[in-house]
Amino acid sequence: MKLLWIVSGLTLSAVGIASFGRIIDKPKIEKPKSEKDALKVASLKPISKLKVPLVPTYASHVAPILLEQCASCHRPGEVAPFSLLTYADAKKRSQQIAQVVETGYMPPWKAAPDYGSFCGERRLSDEQKQILKNWANTGEKSGVLSKSPALPKFPVGWAKGTPDVVFEPSTTYALKADGADVYRNFVVPTSYTEDRYVSAIEVRPGNRAIVHHVIAYLDTQGRARKLDAQDKEPGYSTFGGVGFTPSGALGGWAPGNETPFLPKGVGIFLPKGADIVLQVHYHTSGKPETDKTKIGVYFCKDAVDKQVRILPLIGGLWIPPGKADFKTGGTSTIKSDVTLLNVTPHMHLLGRDMKVRAITPDEKEIPLVHVPDWDFNWQTTYTFKEPIKVPAGTKVKMTALYDNSTSNPRNPSSPPKQVTWGESTTDEMCIAFVSYTVDSEHLLKGEKAQGFKNFGEKQSK
Length: 461
Ligand code: HEC
Known about the structure:
Jelly Rolls, binds heme C, alpha+beta, disordered C terminus, 3 domains
Protein backbone atom coordinates (compact mmCIF):
# COMPACT_ATOMS: atom_id res chain seq x y z
CA MET A 1 0.00 0.00 0.00
CA LYS A 2 1.26 3.37 -0.85
CA LEU A 3 -0.09 6.32 1.07
CA LEU A 4 0.99 9.67 0.05
CA TRP A 5 -1.38 12.03 1.72
CA ILE A 6 -0.21 15.43 0.69
CA VAL A 7 -1.38 18.31 2.75
CA SER A 8 -2.26 21.52 1.07
CA GLY A 9 -0.19 24.13 2.80
CA LEU A 10 -0.53 23.72 6.50
CA THR A 11 -4.26 23.14 6.61
CA LEU A 12 -3.64 19.72 8.07
CA SER A 13 -1.74 21.04 11.03
CA ALA A 14 -4.67 22.81 12.65
CA VAL A 15 -6.92 19.85 13.32
CA GLY A 16 -5.30 16.86 11.71
CA ILE A 17 -2.18 16.80 13.78
CA ALA A 18 -3.82 17.56 17.07
CA SER A 19 -4.79 13.94 17.54
CA PHE A 20 -1.43 12.56 16.44
CA GLY A 21 1.24 14.78 17.88
CA ARG A 22 2.55 18.22 17.20
CA ILE A 23 4.79 20.09 14.87
CA ILE A 24 8.25 20.58 16.20
CA ASP A 25 9.73 23.99 15.48
CA LYS A 26 13.25 23.39 16.68
CA PRO A 27 13.91 19.73 16.10
CA LYS A 28 17.04 18.01 17.27
CA ILE A 29 18.79 16.80 14.15
CA GLU A 30 21.02 13.80 14.34
CA LYS A 31 24.14 13.69 12.24
CA PRO A 32 23.85 11.22 9.39
CA LYS A 33 25.60 7.94 10.03
CA SER A 34 29.28 8.17 9.22
CA GLU A 35 30.72 6.33 6.27
CA LYS A 36 32.71 4.21 8.71
CA ASP A 37 29.52 3.10 10.45
CA ALA A 38 27.97 2.21 7.13
CA LEU A 39 30.99 0.13 6.17
CA LYS A 40 30.89 -1.66 9.49
CA VAL A 41 27.30 -2.70 8.78
CA ALA A 42 28.16 -3.70 5.22
CA SER A 43 30.94 -5.99 6.36
CA LEU A 44 28.51 -7.82 8.63
CA LYS A 45 26.41 -8.88 5.66
CA PRO A 46 26.43 -12.65 5.06
CA ILE A 47 29.00 -13.60 2.48
CA SER A 48 27.23 -14.21 -0.80
CA LYS A 49 27.70 -17.54 -2.54
CA LEU A 50 27.94 -15.79 -5.89
CA LYS A 51 31.45 -16.25 -7.31
CA VAL A 52 32.87 -13.42 -9.34
CA PRO A 53 34.61 -14.74 -12.46
CA LEU A 54 37.45 -12.64 -13.84
CA VAL A 55 36.04 -13.00 -17.35
CA PRO A 56 32.28 -13.27 -16.96
CA THR A 57 30.04 -14.11 -19.92
CA TYR A 58 26.72 -12.64 -20.83
CA ALA A 59 24.96 -16.00 -20.98
CA SER A 60 26.15 -17.37 -17.63
CA HIS A 61 26.72 -14.34 -15.44
CA VAL A 62 25.38 -11.07 -16.81
CA ALA A 63 22.00 -12.02 -18.25
CA PRO A 64 20.69 -13.43 -14.93
CA ILE A 65 21.44 -10.10 -13.24
CA LEU A 66 20.02 -7.86 -15.96
CA LEU A 67 16.87 -9.92 -16.44
CA GLU A 68 16.14 -10.12 -12.75
CA GLN A 69 17.12 -6.62 -11.68
CA CYS A 70 16.72 -4.36 -14.69
CA ALA A 71 14.30 -5.82 -17.25
CA SER A 72 11.19 -4.94 -15.22
CA CYS A 73 11.75 -1.34 -16.36
CA HIS A 74 14.23 -1.77 -19.23
CA ARG A 75 11.95 -3.44 -21.77
CA PRO A 76 9.72 -2.15 -24.54
CA GLY A 77 6.77 -0.12 -23.34
CA GLU A 78 8.23 0.37 -19.85
CA VAL A 79 9.48 3.46 -18.11
CA ALA A 80 13.22 3.17 -18.86
CA PRO A 81 14.43 4.77 -22.09
CA PHE A 82 16.00 1.58 -23.56
CA SER A 83 15.76 -2.21 -23.27
CA LEU A 84 18.23 -4.50 -21.56
CA LEU A 85 16.85 -7.82 -22.74
CA THR A 86 19.50 -9.13 -25.12
CA TYR A 87 23.24 -9.55 -25.46
CA ALA A 88 23.33 -6.74 -28.03
CA ASP A 89 21.37 -4.39 -25.72
CA ALA A 90 23.80 -4.98 -22.88
CA LYS A 91 27.01 -4.94 -24.94
CA LYS A 92 26.14 -1.56 -26.41
CA ARG A 93 26.01 0.00 -22.92
CA SER A 94 28.36 -2.19 -20.90
CA GLN A 95 30.50 0.65 -19.54
CA GLN A 96 27.53 2.80 -18.66
CA ILE A 97 25.88 -0.17 -16.91
CA ALA A 98 29.01 -0.82 -14.86
CA GLN A 99 29.09 2.82 -13.92
CA VAL A 100 25.45 3.28 -12.90
CA VAL A 101 25.43 0.16 -10.73
CA GLU A 102 28.71 1.19 -9.11
CA THR A 103 27.34 4.59 -8.10
CA GLY A 104 24.01 3.05 -7.03
CA TYR A 105 22.09 5.17 -9.55
CA MET A 106 20.60 1.95 -10.92
CA PRO A 107 18.55 0.04 -10.04
CA PRO A 108 16.71 3.01 -8.56
CA TRP A 109 16.31 2.43 -4.83
CA LYS A 110 16.78 5.43 -2.66
CA ALA A 111 16.71 3.98 0.85
CA ALA A 112 20.10 3.61 2.52
CA PRO A 113 21.16 -0.04 2.81
CA ASP A 114 22.05 0.16 6.50
CA TYR A 115 18.75 1.54 7.72
CA GLY A 116 15.57 -0.60 7.80
CA SER A 117 14.60 -3.48 5.53
CA PHE A 118 11.78 -3.49 3.05
CA CYS A 119 9.63 -5.60 0.74
CA GLY A 120 10.77 -5.52 -2.89
CA GLU A 121 14.15 -3.90 -2.17
CA ARG A 122 16.04 -3.27 -5.42
CA ARG A 123 19.72 -3.61 -4.73
CA LEU A 124 22.64 -5.40 -6.32
CA SER A 125 25.13 -7.29 -4.18
CA ASP A 126 28.79 -6.25 -4.35
CA GLU A 127 29.46 -9.45 -6.31
CA GLN A 128 26.80 -8.64 -8.89
CA LYS A 129 28.27 -5.18 -9.38
CA GLN A 130 31.74 -6.66 -9.76
CA ILE A 131 30.49 -9.12 -12.39
CA LEU A 132 29.05 -6.28 -14.49
CA LYS A 133 32.28 -4.34 -14.11
CA ASN A 134 34.53 -7.26 -15.02
CA TRP A 135 32.34 -8.02 -18.02
CA ALA A 136 32.56 -4.47 -19.32
CA ASN A 137 36.34 -4.50 -18.89
CA THR A 138 37.09 -7.88 -20.49
CA GLY A 139 35.50 -7.46 -23.89
CA GLU A 140 31.85 -8.33 -23.11
CA LYS A 141 32.15 -12.07 -23.83
CA SER A 142 28.87 -13.57 -24.96
CA GLY A 143 29.31 -17.15 -23.75
CA VAL A 144 26.92 -19.65 -25.28
CA LEU A 145 23.98 -17.41 -25.99
CA SER A 146 21.59 -20.31 -26.47
CA LYS A 147 22.22 -21.12 -22.82
CA SER A 148 21.18 -17.63 -21.62
CA PRO A 149 18.30 -17.71 -19.18
CA ALA A 150 14.84 -17.39 -20.74
CA LEU A 151 13.17 -13.98 -20.52
CA PRO A 152 11.15 -13.71 -17.31
CA LYS A 153 7.37 -13.99 -17.65
CA PHE A 154 6.44 -10.34 -17.40
CA PRO A 155 2.90 -9.86 -16.17
CA VAL A 156 0.39 -9.21 -18.91
CA GLY A 157 -2.75 -7.83 -17.42
CA TRP A 158 -3.11 -7.46 -13.68
CA ALA A 159 -0.09 -8.69 -11.73
CA LYS A 160 -2.16 -9.20 -8.57
CA GLY A 161 -4.96 -11.07 -10.39
CA THR A 162 -8.31 -9.73 -11.58
CA PRO A 163 -9.32 -6.77 -9.38
CA ASP A 164 -12.74 -6.62 -7.72
CA VAL A 165 -13.39 -3.37 -9.51
CA VAL A 166 -11.55 -1.21 -12.02
CA PHE A 167 -11.90 2.58 -11.97
CA GLU A 168 -10.80 4.90 -14.75
CA PRO A 169 -11.32 8.52 -15.79
CA SER A 170 -14.24 9.00 -18.16
CA THR A 171 -12.12 10.58 -20.89
CA THR A 172 -8.65 10.21 -22.35
CA TYR A 173 -6.13 12.90 -21.49
CA ALA A 174 -3.97 14.47 -24.20
CA LEU A 175 -0.46 15.50 -23.13
CA LYS A 176 1.52 18.05 -25.10
CA ALA A 177 4.80 17.02 -26.76
CA ASP A 178 7.24 19.08 -24.71
CA GLY A 179 7.58 21.14 -21.61
CA ALA A 180 7.55 20.68 -17.87
CA ASP A 181 6.09 17.65 -16.12
CA VAL A 182 2.34 17.71 -15.57
CA TYR A 183 0.48 16.61 -12.41
CA ARG A 184 -3.04 15.89 -13.53
CA ASN A 185 -5.82 14.92 -11.13
CA PHE A 186 -8.72 12.88 -12.51
CA VAL A 187 -11.87 12.58 -10.42
CA VAL A 188 -13.45 9.13 -10.49
CA PRO A 189 -16.61 8.60 -8.40
CA THR A 190 -16.90 5.26 -6.56
CA SER A 191 -20.65 5.65 -5.87
CA TYR A 192 -20.72 2.98 -3.14
CA THR A 193 -23.58 3.30 -0.70
CA GLU A 194 -21.73 1.57 2.13
CA ASP A 195 -18.21 1.85 3.60
CA ARG A 196 -15.65 -0.68 2.38
CA TYR A 197 -12.14 -1.85 3.19
CA VAL A 198 -9.40 -2.09 0.60
CA SER A 199 -6.49 -4.53 0.82
CA ALA A 200 -4.50 -3.41 -2.22
CA ILE A 201 -4.67 -1.46 -5.42
CA GLU A 202 -2.91 -1.91 -8.71
CA VAL A 203 -2.35 0.88 -11.17
CA ARG A 204 -2.27 0.22 -14.91
CA PRO A 205 -0.77 3.22 -16.67
CA GLY A 206 -2.45 3.72 -20.02
CA ASN A 207 0.77 4.97 -21.62
CA ARG A 208 3.97 3.95 -19.88
CA ALA A 209 6.09 6.25 -22.00
CA ILE A 210 4.68 9.26 -20.16
CA VAL A 211 3.23 8.05 -16.84
CA HIS A 212 5.86 8.49 -14.17
CA HIS A 213 3.90 7.81 -11.03
CA VAL A 214 0.32 7.67 -9.82
CA ILE A 215 -1.34 8.22 -6.45
CA ALA A 216 -4.97 7.46 -5.68
CA TYR A 217 -6.33 9.96 -3.14
CA LEU A 218 -9.82 10.04 -1.67
CA ASP A 219 -12.23 12.94 -1.44
CA THR A 220 -15.50 12.67 0.48
CA GLN A 221 -16.48 16.30 0.17
CA GLY A 222 -16.68 17.04 -3.53
CA ARG A 223 -13.72 19.40 -3.46
CA ALA A 224 -11.91 17.72 -6.34
CA ARG A 225 -15.09 17.82 -8.44
CA LYS A 226 -15.21 21.60 -8.01
CA LEU A 227 -11.59 22.00 -9.13
CA ASP A 228 -12.26 19.68 -12.05
CA ALA A 229 -15.28 21.73 -13.12
CA GLN A 230 -13.13 24.87 -13.32
CA ASP A 231 -10.78 23.29 -15.88
CA LYS A 232 -11.93 22.72 -19.47
CA GLU A 233 -9.68 19.69 -20.12
CA PRO A 234 -10.19 16.33 -18.39
CA GLY A 235 -9.06 16.60 -14.76
CA TYR A 236 -7.14 19.52 -13.26
CA SER A 237 -3.43 20.24 -12.66
CA THR A 238 -1.45 20.73 -9.44
CA PHE A 239 2.06 19.99 -8.23
CA GLY A 240 2.69 17.50 -5.45
CA GLY A 241 -0.70 17.81 -3.73
CA VAL A 242 -4.26 17.70 -5.02
CA GLY A 243 -5.30 21.25 -4.13
CA PHE A 244 -6.88 20.49 -0.75
CA THR A 245 -6.35 18.16 2.21
CA PRO A 246 -7.62 14.84 0.91
CA SER A 247 -9.87 12.56 2.95
CA GLY A 248 -7.32 9.79 2.58
CA ALA A 249 -5.53 7.73 0.00
CA LEU A 250 -5.72 4.20 -1.36
CA GLY A 251 -2.14 3.96 -2.46
CA GLY A 252 0.01 4.59 -5.45
CA TRP A 253 2.28 3.29 -8.10
CA ALA A 254 5.70 4.06 -9.44
CA PRO A 255 7.60 1.94 -11.95
CA GLY A 256 8.83 -1.25 -10.33
CA ASN A 257 7.25 -0.33 -7.01
CA GLU A 258 4.22 -2.57 -6.74
CA THR A 259 3.03 -2.52 -3.16
CA PRO A 260 1.87 -5.76 -1.56
CA PHE A 261 -1.56 -6.72 -0.16
CA LEU A 262 -2.07 -5.60 3.42
CA PRO A 263 -1.76 -8.26 6.12
CA LYS A 264 -4.89 -10.42 6.66
CA GLY A 265 -7.59 -8.65 8.65
CA VAL A 266 -6.17 -5.19 7.92
CA GLY A 267 -7.80 -2.75 5.51
CA ILE A 268 -7.79 0.82 4.23
CA PHE A 269 -11.09 2.54 4.94
CA LEU A 270 -12.96 3.55 1.78
CA PRO A 271 -15.87 5.74 2.93
CA LYS A 272 -19.15 5.41 1.08
CA GLY A 273 -19.65 7.85 -1.74
CA ALA A 274 -15.96 8.81 -1.86
CA ASP A 275 -14.41 10.06 -5.08
CA ILE A 276 -11.05 8.65 -6.09
CA VAL A 277 -8.73 11.45 -7.15
CA LEU A 278 -6.25 9.77 -9.44
CA GLN A 279 -3.15 11.92 -9.60
CA VAL A 280 -0.94 11.09 -12.56
CA HIS A 281 2.56 12.56 -12.85
CA TYR A 282 3.37 12.85 -16.57
CA HIS A 283 6.74 13.28 -18.27
CA THR A 284 6.47 14.75 -21.75
CA SER A 285 8.00 12.47 -24.39
CA GLY A 286 8.82 14.80 -27.31
CA LYS A 287 5.65 13.95 -29.21
CA PRO A 288 1.98 14.47 -28.39
CA GLU A 289 0.69 11.53 -26.36
CA THR A 290 -2.55 10.35 -24.82
CA ASP A 291 -3.25 8.42 -21.64
CA LYS A 292 -6.05 6.88 -19.66
CA THR A 293 -4.69 5.26 -16.52
CA LYS A 294 -6.75 2.62 -14.70
CA ILE A 295 -6.80 1.63 -11.07
CA GLY A 296 -7.77 -1.89 -9.98
CA VAL A 297 -9.09 -2.18 -6.43
CA TYR A 298 -8.90 -5.36 -4.34
CA PHE A 299 -11.25 -5.34 -1.36
CA CYS A 300 -10.39 -7.19 1.84
CA LYS A 301 -11.62 -10.77 1.48
CA ASP A 302 -11.42 -11.59 5.18
CA ALA A 303 -13.32 -9.75 7.87
CA VAL A 304 -11.44 -6.60 8.82
CA ASP A 305 -10.29 -6.37 12.43
CA LYS A 306 -7.97 -3.39 12.11
CA GLN A 307 -8.02 -0.26 10.05
CA VAL A 308 -4.91 1.29 8.59
CA ARG A 309 -4.18 4.68 10.13
CA ILE A 310 -1.71 7.32 9.14
CA LEU A 311 0.74 9.17 11.31
CA PRO A 312 1.91 12.26 9.44
CA LEU A 313 5.22 13.66 10.66
CA ILE A 314 5.58 17.26 9.57
CA GLY A 315 8.49 19.64 9.65
CA GLY A 316 8.13 23.42 9.68
CA LEU A 317 9.67 25.11 6.64
CA TRP A 318 11.19 28.55 6.25
CA ILE A 319 14.19 28.05 4.01
CA PRO A 320 16.30 31.16 3.44
CA PRO A 321 17.62 31.73 -0.08
CA GLY A 322 21.15 30.37 -0.50
CA LYS A 323 20.96 28.13 2.58
CA ALA A 324 22.56 24.80 1.64
CA ASP A 325 21.79 22.86 4.82
CA PHE A 326 18.41 23.84 6.21
CA LYS A 327 17.40 21.30 8.82
CA THR A 328 13.92 20.60 10.10
CA GLY A 329 11.84 17.72 11.34
CA GLY A 330 8.92 16.57 13.42
CA THR A 331 8.21 14.13 16.22
CA SER A 332 5.04 12.39 17.31
CA THR A 333 4.51 10.32 20.42
CA ILE A 334 2.29 7.29 19.95
CA LYS A 335 -0.16 6.81 22.77
CA SER A 336 -0.94 3.09 22.33
CA ASP A 337 0.81 -0.10 21.34
CA VAL A 338 0.80 -0.05 17.55
CA THR A 339 2.17 -1.97 14.58
CA LEU A 340 3.94 0.03 11.89
CA LEU A 341 3.41 -1.13 8.29
CA ASN A 342 5.13 1.29 5.93
CA VAL A 343 6.57 4.77 5.55
CA THR A 344 6.37 7.32 2.71
CA PRO A 345 8.77 10.27 2.77
CA HIS A 346 7.77 13.34 0.80
CA MET A 347 9.66 16.48 -0.15
CA HIS A 348 9.87 18.53 -3.34
CA LEU A 349 12.97 19.59 -5.30
CA LEU A 350 15.10 21.18 -2.56
CA GLY A 351 14.82 18.13 -0.28
CA ARG A 352 18.14 16.29 0.04
CA ASP A 353 17.88 13.88 2.97
CA MET A 354 15.13 12.45 5.15
CA LYS A 355 15.36 9.98 7.99
CA VAL A 356 12.54 8.45 10.01
CA ARG A 357 13.03 6.42 13.16
CA ALA A 358 11.11 5.18 16.16
CA ILE A 359 12.51 5.58 19.67
CA THR A 360 10.92 3.30 22.23
CA PRO A 361 10.35 4.45 25.84
CA ASP A 362 13.50 2.54 26.84
CA GLU A 363 15.45 4.61 24.28
CA LYS A 364 15.89 1.85 21.71
CA GLU A 365 16.19 3.27 18.20
CA ILE A 366 14.29 1.40 15.50
CA PRO A 367 15.34 2.46 12.00
CA LEU A 368 12.36 3.07 9.73
CA VAL A 369 13.89 4.60 6.61
CA HIS A 370 16.74 6.86 5.56
CA VAL A 371 16.78 8.46 2.10
CA PRO A 372 20.22 10.08 1.91
CA ASP A 373 19.94 11.32 -1.67
CA TRP A 374 16.34 12.40 -2.10
CA ASP A 375 15.04 12.43 -5.68
CA PHE A 376 11.55 13.78 -6.26
CA ASN A 377 11.27 11.48 -9.28
CA TRP A 378 11.41 8.33 -7.20
CA GLN A 379 8.58 8.67 -4.71
CA THR A 380 8.38 5.39 -2.85
CA THR A 381 6.33 3.83 -0.13
CA TYR A 382 8.69 1.65 1.84
CA THR A 383 6.80 -1.38 3.19
CA PHE A 384 8.64 -2.90 6.14
CA LYS A 385 9.75 -6.47 5.51
CA GLU A 386 8.04 -7.42 8.77
CA PRO A 387 5.44 -5.17 10.42
CA ILE A 388 7.13 -3.40 13.36
CA LYS A 389 5.46 -3.53 16.77
CA VAL A 390 6.21 -0.59 19.07
CA PRO A 391 4.92 0.08 22.59
CA ALA A 392 2.86 3.05 23.80
CA GLY A 393 5.09 6.05 24.44
CA THR A 394 7.25 5.41 21.40
CA LYS A 395 8.38 8.58 19.67
CA VAL A 396 8.44 8.58 15.89
CA LYS A 397 10.94 11.13 14.63
CA MET A 398 11.52 12.54 11.20
CA THR A 399 14.48 14.74 10.33
CA ALA A 400 15.06 16.36 6.96
CA LEU A 401 17.65 18.43 5.15
CA TYR A 402 17.14 20.96 2.31
CA ASP A 403 19.55 22.65 -0.07
CA ASN A 404 18.31 26.04 -1.29
CA SER A 405 21.64 27.13 -2.72
CA THR A 406 22.68 27.57 -6.33
CA SER A 407 24.83 24.45 -6.04
CA ASN A 408 21.68 22.30 -5.91
CA PRO A 409 21.12 21.53 -9.60
CA ARG A 410 17.45 20.75 -8.88
CA ASN A 411 16.77 24.18 -7.37
CA PRO A 412 13.78 25.43 -9.40
CA SER A 413 14.48 29.10 -8.55
CA SER A 414 17.42 31.00 -9.97
CA PRO A 415 18.45 33.01 -8.04
CA PRO A 416 17.19 31.03 -5.01
CA LYS A 417 14.20 32.56 -3.19
CA GLN A 418 12.73 32.28 0.27
CA VAL A 419 10.85 28.96 0.33
CA THR A 420 7.94 27.86 2.52
CA TRP A 421 5.16 25.28 2.43
CA GLY A 422 3.08 25.04 -0.67
CA GLU A 423 1.92 22.99 -3.58
CA SER A 424 3.80 24.53 -6.45
CA THR A 425 7.10 23.37 -7.92
CA THR A 426 8.92 26.24 -6.27
CA ASP A 427 7.40 25.56 -2.82
CA GLU A 428 8.43 22.80 -0.49
CA MET A 429 6.91 20.15 1.72
CA CYS A 430 8.36 18.19 4.60
CA ILE A 431 6.29 15.22 5.56
CA ALA A 432 6.59 11.51 6.20
CA PHE A 433 3.51 9.30 6.43
CA VAL A 434 3.76 6.25 8.62
CA SER A 435 0.94 3.71 8.23
CA TYR A 436 0.08 1.63 11.24
CA THR A 437 -2.61 -0.35 13.02
CA VAL A 438 -3.58 -0.05 16.69
CA ASP A 439 -2.94 -3.32 18.54
CA SER A 440 -5.93 -2.97 20.87
CA GLU A 441 -8.35 -2.40 17.99
CA HIS A 442 -10.63 -5.34 17.23
CA LEU A 443 -13.36 -4.19 14.90
CA LEU A 444 -14.68 -7.76 14.84
CA LYS A 445 -15.39 -7.54 18.56
CA GLY A 446 -16.75 -4.04 18.18
CA GLU A 447 -13.64 -2.57 19.81
CA LYS A 448 -12.60 0.45 17.86
CA ALA A 449 -9.42 2.28 18.80
CA GLN A 450 -10.34 5.51 20.55
CA GLY A 451 -8.65 8.84 20.07
CA PHE A 452 -7.42 8.07 16.56
CA LYS A 453 -8.85 9.94 13.66
CA ASN A 454 -10.13 7.89 10.76
CA PHE A 455 -9.80 9.01 7.22
CA GLY A 456 -13.14 9.89 5.77
CA GLU A 457 -14.86 10.30 9.12
CA LYS A 458 -14.27 13.71 10.63
CA GLN A 459 -12.37 15.85 8.26
CA SER A 460 -9.99 18.63 9.08
CA LYS A 461 -11.53 21.16 6.79
C1 HEC B 1 12.35 0.80 -11.52
C2 HEC B 1 12.71 0.95 -12.88
C3 HEC B 1 14.15 0.70 -13.27
C4 HEC B 1 14.94 -0.37 -12.94
C5 HEC B 1 14.59 -1.58 -12.11
C6 HEC B 1 16.21 -0.13 -13.56
N1 HEC B 1 16.18 1.04 -14.26
FE1 HEC B 1 17.75 1.86 -15.33
N2 HEC B 1 16.57 3.47 -15.75
C7 HEC B 1 15.27 3.65 -15.40
C8 HEC B 1 14.80 4.94 -15.87
C9 HEC B 1 13.41 5.50 -15.70
C10 HEC B 1 15.88 5.53 -16.52
C11 HEC B 1 15.92 6.90 -17.20
C12 HEC B 1 15.80 8.03 -16.26
C13 HEC B 1 16.96 8.13 -15.36
O1 HEC B 1 18.10 8.17 -15.85
O2 HEC B 1 16.71 8.23 -14.13
C14 HEC B 1 16.99 4.60 -16.42
C15 HEC B 1 18.25 4.84 -16.93
C16 HEC B 1 19.29 3.90 -16.98
C17 HEC B 1 20.58 4.12 -17.59
C18 HEC B 1 21.01 5.41 -18.28
C19 HEC B 1 21.59 6.33 -17.24
C20 HEC B 1 22.01 7.66 -17.78
O3 HEC B 1 22.89 8.25 -17.15
O4 HEC B 1 21.47 8.07 -18.80
C21 HEC B 1 21.28 2.97 -17.43
C22 HEC B 1 22.70 2.66 -17.95
C23 HEC B 1 20.47 2.05 -16.68
N3 HEC B 1 19.25 2.65 -16.41
C24 HEC B 1 20.84 0.77 -16.30
C25 HEC B 1 20.11 -0.03 -15.46
C26 HEC B 1 20.58 -1.30 -14.95
C27 HEC B 1 21.91 -1.94 -15.28
C28 HEC B 1 19.59 -1.79 -14.14
C29 HEC B 1 19.59 -3.07 -13.35
C30 HEC B 1 20.75 -3.33 -12.54
C31 HEC B 1 18.50 -0.82 -14.16
N4 HEC B 1 18.85 0.23 -14.95
C32 HEC B 1 17.31 -0.98 -13.45
C33 HEC B 1 14.48 2.76 -14.69
C34 HEC B 1 14.94 1.58 -14.12
